[in-house]
Amino acid sequence: LFVKLSPNVTDICTTAQAAVDAGADVLALINTLAGMAIDPETRRPRLGNVTGGLSGPAVKPIAVRMVHAVYRKVGEPSGVPLVGMGGIMTAGDAVEFLLAGATAVGLGTATFLDPAATLKVASGLRDYLVRHGVGSVRELTGAVRLD
Ligand SMILES: Cc1cc2nc3c(=O)[nH]c(=O)nc-3n(C[C@H](O)[C@H](O)[C@H](O)COP(=O)(O)O)c2cc1C
Prior knowledge:
It contains five helices and eight strands; from the N terminus they run βαβββββαβαβαα. The chain has 147 residues and is α/β, with parallel strands linked by helices. It is globular and about 55 Å long.
């Protein structure tokens, strides 16, 4: 069972724990964040639905924080792997999510700008592993240095 978590909740850890308790095998986070934009000339919302899903680099710090919190409170204790996403454009961004606690990463918005983005991030990840003498991406999961 694959569960995609929305960041538009009071506490994403509570939602994540409920998903694990319900039998989730993998948690993916985060989905888009609710956002709004207004055209100052027309005073009208820029989106037909007034609000809409915000994605890409603007949401990345929020996504990394949420992956880290869910990893600590739910993913690490339960062993349920996390797929981290939200603004990953480069291999460095992907490494951030892995260090925060993701077991794997995904790209959405980046592929709209460059259909080959995922391939570039994957090869950049290989370069990172070589450059840092890391044997496997698995060794990066949750390895952020907090001391
Ligand atoms: C145009 C668009 C459509 C999306 N449709 C879905 C969807 O159908 N189901 C889903 O779980 N997430 C959907 N998402 C959210 C993405 O899977 C992803 O969680 C989010 O965009 C953050 O990652 P990103 O910054 O790499 O795009 C969509 C995002 C965009 C931009």
